[in-house]
Structure formats: structure tokens, C-alpha cells
């Protein structure tokens, strides 16, 4: 699986809420055996995962994706603790996405490797959800167009669905 | 109830900081930006009491040193080194390094610098000296079970400690013990009956339980939150709760629920017509689908 990956919004989303768990979705298109990820849409930040806003956000993103001839092809999750595993509070949303797109993956940040002195890129781990959550071997995912970590972490606003609800002038989905 | 960070004047910023504290929000970047300015220019106008509360919530104007603490914690989140150093120096200069509250902040600074062993040492010393007042430390070191237990013990004695009820609600919610989280949060409603954030948060917790009765309770509390302060968040909450209600056996075909849903969609569409018209189209297509 080749995943052309839109890294920047994820990195900014994580930087915007460093003390909280964050969750977002990946939009893209399937092309033969490839999944081309075109965008990352930040959805949620918080200590506690509240399904109300994630459900609503997923519905809104789906509607928008259809109009762009795209679909939700995966999700990303960054934990407040830096742990790379997907917690049980997040798995149900990943599975819902998978029912619409069987090849959907969830990306999480391997913070230990990403922020080691020898790393210049964010290191992600990918998971697929079948009967259980399984890690995808690194050599099955390629990330194209990744910029170095230092240039991705900019102090620019990246509004997720929650931020957008507080102030609808903040651009989110479009 | 004002919009967060509506303007950068003294009253608006102070009110925004207070709302974040009561509504359990972090909004680290804005807290640092506006809070630092407030402290730099107007600290003498804020109530200068030296009392630092631990788990007793103050619904009065925040004492100045609680604002220092709030901005300091936000600066840790954003890794704003200059602000961290300045505020910590001012806090230590005023209160010394022996205060447990100050040492907790020093421990948080060590964590932010990833000096975890040094942070743990600070926290363990505080716990040994004063196990009851070290309740918050339990959370910092990830001892959630004892954190919940100690909070419950504390609240048996200090039943009016609103911030402790809030903390306990959050701790239960993190463990997905939604009914316990809701029960604790009801104390927060009693203490802040005019705060729209509180009703929205309560509604969010109710929704998480996922049954006809709790969806209805969620919709009701989002509606009351909207009545107190017409927020987009409350509108989205009404829409989603109504949608969830309609998906249940008892709620299917409920005309009242349908009309509430349509009203909320029309209100939200109106908001977007003024701010982002393209979003209005997405809301309408979502409504047609439901």
C-alpha cells in the first residue's frame, strides 16, 4: 500500500494541542492497489474521547468528501502520552471507517523515534482493523511528500472540528 | 457569558481565563498570549490575595496568583520557554520554594523538560509530607485508581469543593465510567447554574451513555445551554442528540424530536450563511440525509 500522505495538518494539529489526545481522518482515493491520501482533516482534541463530536464530524466530512469525489480512507491518532498504540476509546471510530473503506488504516505517532536526535521526520505507525487491530509492516506504507519535522511544526492555527464549533470563522473542512 | 477571547481588554481576558478554568478547557496558546499580556500590564488590578486554593474552586474573580499558575501551565503546554522561566521566577520569588503548590509547578516544569526522574522525586516528597494535599500528584504520576479513591475521600469531608467534583468527573470519564462522571458533574451544575459550558459538558457525558433516556437528557441540556448562550457547539449537540434519538426504537417517528432537529439545522444554517456559506450547504445536505 502506498500512502501519499498529507503530513502537515497532522503535525500542526498535534502541536496545537500538545497536552491532549487528538484524532482526525484521512481523505483520499483508491487507485488500483494504491490508496492515495490527499488530505488530513483534524477532528477532535481532548483528554476524554467523546463520541458525540467525532460522530458528527465524521458525518460532515463524509458529506464533503462525496462532493469532492473522495472518501474517508483512514484516520490518525496522536496520544497525549506519546504512546503509539490505539486505545480502546478510539478503535470503534476506526472500525466504523473501515466498514465504509475496508483498506482503511489508522496512523499513530511513534514519538520516541520521531523526536530522537537522529530523526528528521515524523515516524508513524500504521494499523489495520480486522478482527483485531494489527500493525502494518513499515515497508508496506510509503510516505511521499513528507517535510522535515522542524519545518512542519509551525505556530500556525490549525482548527479542528471542536475549534471550529467555538468559532465558525475558523476554517475547518473547506 | 462572553465569547472566549472576544477582545483583549482586561475584563474580557480575565473572564475568558475564568471560563476556561470552570469549563475545564486548556486553549494553551491563547491563554499564554492573552494571559501574559494581562499579567504584564494589569496584575495590580487583579485581586492580590495570596491564598492559593488547591481543590476549592473559586467562582469569584481569580486571585492573581491563580492566573500566574494557569498561564504557567499553558506555557508548559506550548513550550514557551521565555514565559515559563519568567513566570516560575515570579512565583518562586513571591511564594518561595517550600510551598507544596510551587513545588508541584516545579515538578511539572521538570516533566516538560523530560527530566522525569527529577519530577518523580519532587512529587514523591510532596506525597510523603502531605498525602491528602498530594491528591493531584497522584494524577500527575498516573496513579488514577488512588487518585479517584483519594478524591472521593476528600469530597466526603469537603462536599462543596467544586473543583474536586470536576476533577473526579474527568477522572471517571477517562476511565469511561460515564454514570459516575455524570453524577459528579451534577455537583458542578449546582455550583454554576448559569454557566452554559457546564450544561454542554453535562450533555456530552450523557450522550456517551448511548440510550434513549440519556440522548433525551443530552438534547435537553444542550437546549438549555443554547438558551443561556447561543453557541454553535450547543446547536451541533442538539442536532446530533436528535439524530441519535431518532435512531432509537422509542424515538423513531417522534414529531417533536423531528421539529427540534429541523429548528436546530435552520439555526446552524443561518450562522453559516453569515460566516462560511459553503459550510451551510454541507449542513443542509447532512440534514437531508438524516
UniProtKB/TrEMBL annotation, chain A:
It comes from the Eukaryota. InterPro entries: EMC8/9. Pfam families: UPF0172. Coiled coil: none annotated. Transmembrane segments: none annotated. GO terms for cellular component: EMC complex. This is MPN domain-containing protein. It comes from Planoprotostelium fungivorum.
Automatic annotation (TrEMBL), chain B:
Belongs to the EMC2 family. Part of the endoplasmic reticulum membrane protein complex (EMC) that enables the energy-independent insertion into endoplasmic reticulum membranes of newly synthesized membrane proteins. It is a peripheral membrane protein. Component of the ER membrane protein complex (EMC). One of its GO terms (cellular component) is EMC complex. It comes from Planoprotostelium fungivorum. It comes from the Eukaryota. Keywords: Endoplasmic reticulum, Membrane, Repeat, TPR repeat. TPR repeats lie at residues 100-133, 162-195. InterPro entries: EMC2-like, TPR-like_helical_dom_sf, TPR_EMC2, TPR_rpt. Residues 109-212 form the EMC2 TPR-like domain. This is ER membrane protein complex subunit 2. It is found in: Endoplasmic reticulum membrane. SMART domains: TPR. PROSITE patterns: TPR.
Amino acid at each position: 500500500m502506498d500512502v501519499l500522505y498529507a503530513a502537515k495538518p497532522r503535525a500542526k494539529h498535534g502541536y496545537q494541542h500538545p497536552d491532549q489526545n487528538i484524532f482526525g481522518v484521512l481523505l483520499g482515493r483508491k487507485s488500483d492497489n494504491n490508496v492515495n491520501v490527499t488530505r488530513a482533516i483534524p477532528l477532535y482534541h481532548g483528554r476524554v474521547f467523546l463520541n458525540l463530536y467525532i460522530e458528527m464530524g465524521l458525518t460532515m466530512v463524509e458529506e464533503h468528501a462525496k462532493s469532492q469525489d473522495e472518501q474517508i480512507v483512514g484516520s490518525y491518532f496522536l496520544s497525549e502520552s506519546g504512546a503509539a498504540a490505539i486505545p480502546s476509546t478510539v478503535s470503534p471510530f476506526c472500525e466504523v471507517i473501515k466498514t465504509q473503506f475496508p483498506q482503511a488504516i489508522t496512523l499513530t505517532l511513534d514519538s520516541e523515534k520521531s523526536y530522537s536526535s537522529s530523526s528528521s521526520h515524523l515516524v508513524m505507525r500504521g494499523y489495520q482493523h480486522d478482527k483485531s487491530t494489527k500493525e502494518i509492516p513499515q515497508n508496506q506504507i510509503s510516505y511521499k511528500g513528507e517535510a522535515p519535522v522542524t519545518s512542519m511544526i509551525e505556530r500556525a492555527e490549525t482548527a479542528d472540528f471542536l475549534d471550529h464549533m467555538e468559532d465558525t470563522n475558523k476554517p475547518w473542512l473547506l | 457569558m462572553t465569547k472566549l477571547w472576544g477582545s483583549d481588554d482586561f475584563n474580557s481576558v480575565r473572564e475568558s481565563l475564568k471560563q476556561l478554568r470552570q469549563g475545564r478547557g486548556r486553549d494553551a496558546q491563547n491563554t499564554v498570549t492573552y494571559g501574559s499580556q494581562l499579567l504584564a500590564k494589569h496584575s495590580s488590578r487583579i485581586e492580590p490575595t495570596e491564598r492559593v486554593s488547591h481543590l476549592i474552586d473559586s467562582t469569584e474573580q481569580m486571585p492573581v496568583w491563580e492566573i500566574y499558575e494557569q498561564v504557567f501551565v499553558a506555557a508548559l503546554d506550548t513550550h514557551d520557554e521565555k514565559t515559563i522561566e519568567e513566570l516560575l521566577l515570579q512565583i518562586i520569588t513571591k511564594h518561595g520554594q517550600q510551598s507544596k503548590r510551587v513545588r508541584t509547578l516545579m515538578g511539572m516544569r521538570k516533566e516538560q523538560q523530560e527530566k522525569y526522574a527529577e519530577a518523580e522525586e519532587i512529587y514523591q516528597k510532596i506525597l510523603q509530607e502531605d498525602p491528602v494535599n498530594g491528591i493531584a500528584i497522584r494524577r500527575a504520576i498516573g496513579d488514577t485508581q488512588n487518585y479517584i479513591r483519594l478524591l472521593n475521600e476528600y469530597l466526603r469531608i469537603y462536599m462543596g469543593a467544586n473543583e474536586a467534583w470536576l476533577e473526579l468527573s474527568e477522572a471517571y470519564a477517562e476511565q469511561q465510567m460515564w454514570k459516575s462522571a455524570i453524577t459528579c458533574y451534577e455537583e458542578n451544575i449546582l455550583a454554576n447554574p448559569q454557566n452554559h459550558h457546564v450544561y454542554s459538558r453535562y450533555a456530552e457525558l450523557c450522550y456517551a451513555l448511548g440510550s434513549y433516556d440519556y440522548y433525551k437528557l443530552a438534547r435537553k441540556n444542550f437546549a438549555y445551554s443554547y438558551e443561556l448562550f447561543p453557541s454553535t457547539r450547543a446547536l451541533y449537540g442538539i442536532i446530533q442528540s436528535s439524530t441519535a434519538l431518532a435512531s432509537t426504537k422509542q424515538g423513531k417517528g417522534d414529531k417533536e424530536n423531528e421539529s427540534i432537529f429541523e429548528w436546530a439545522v435552520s439555526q446552524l444554517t443561518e450562522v453559516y450563511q453569515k460566516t462560511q456559506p459553503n459550510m451551510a450547504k454541507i449542513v443542509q445536505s447532512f440534514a437531508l440525509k438524516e
